[in-house]
Predict the structure.
Amino acid sequence: MAKLKLGPIADDKPVKVTVELPAPLHRDLSRYAEILGRDSGQPSTDPLRLIVPMLERFIATDRGFAKAKQERKVNTDKHKNT
């Protein structure tokens, strides 16, 4: 069983996104969807449904972004209180 960063994809309302993907990236997304389905015991999901959870995971685990986001929040809160 592969140790993937994503868990099973929740059955949620679809989100429309228009984006052009390089062919190698689409192939990787397709393969990732196959592996994720196999490892979670579910059918393979549409590879495009992986984009949002992957972006969410990427943003949630980006320490530089979290730090910058927190600094911006602190600065915004300071300006609100003055």
